Amino acid sequence: QVQLQESGPGLVKPSETLSLTCSVSGVSISNTHYYWAWIRQPPGKGLEWIGDVYYTGSTFYNPSLKSRVTISVDTSKNCFSLRLSSVAATDTTIYYCARRLSHRGTFDYWGQGTLVAVSS
Amino acid sequence: DIQMTQSPSTLSASVGDRVTITCRASQSISSWLAWYQQEPGKAPKLLIYKASDLESGVPSRFSGSGSGTEFTLTISSLQPDDFATYYCQQYNSYPWTFGQGTKVEIK
Asked: Cβ contact (<8 Å) for B43 and A96?
């Protein structure tokens, strides 16, 4: 079955770059029916879409984060990645990776989420 | 950005109750609205898409309605597994945006 799993450091220093990877199993990341997304959620708060990537490398980013975000895809490893630069305490949150159907904007499979804290 | 506003923020109900949650969009999103359920410590789960279409495997006690700017999620008879937080999400246009959530608590 389809599974997504986030991995990466749980602690990042202020002003540094947060890097996370989402490993996908049960479906090819090159499947033309899907985009691959990052979404975040401060503990106890609401959801914020960060951005999407298609297997071709085409990306869409939330304008509120666009200047600091890079999402990339590695089809050979069936995974995709998030880089968020110049992090601050407000970037302390749970980061989810998710699959989005390419013909609509809903997220049908999610990773379990990973908490990243920004602290010195 | 399209702002999504849910009401109420918290709802207290009992098993068997009929529950309705409202989601309003700051501009028309046609029927491009989804609902998710999130249990504590878990990722959100897609319940409904295109305002009223039930995702495969979701119990029929969940239903959605609305179009334009006003939408509702109804749980016809609340079950113990339904005590969770519910989010609406618009996918009419980028950036995709979510409501702030409605927590359904045990009364």
From this structure: yes
Nearest Cα neighbor of A84 from A36, A17, A31, A37 is: A17
Is A96 at the interface with chain B, CB within 8 A?
yes
CB atoms within 10 A of CB A115: 14
Asked if residue B66 lies in contact with residue B72, where contact means CB atoms within 8 angstroms, the answer is: yes
At residue A42's C-alpha, the angle toward residues B8 and A87, to 5°, is 145
A95 has which bridge partners?
A: A40, A114
**Alpha-carbon distance values, B9 to A49, A68, A108, B22, B78 (Å):** 20, 31, 24, 10, 17
Report how far residue A30's alpha carbon sits from residue B70's, in angstroms, rounded to the nearest whole number.
36
Q: What is the pLDDT of residues B1-60, one digit of tens each?
A: 999 999 999 999 999 999 999 999 999 999 999 999 999 999 999 999 999 999 999 999
First to last CA, chain A: 39
Going through B2-69 in order, the beta strands assigned E by DSSP cover 4-7, 10-13, 19-25, 33-38, 45-49, 53-54, 62-67
d(CA A71, CA A20): 10
Between A and B, how many residue pairs show a Cβ–Cβ distance under 8 A?
55
- Cβ neighbors of A24 (< 8 A, separation 6 or more) are A2, A3, A4, A36, A78, A79, A80, A99
Beta-sheet pairing, A79-84 with A18-25: antiparallel
For B55, the closest chain A residue by CA position comes to A108
Over residues A79-92, the pLDDT tens digits come to 999 999 999 999 99
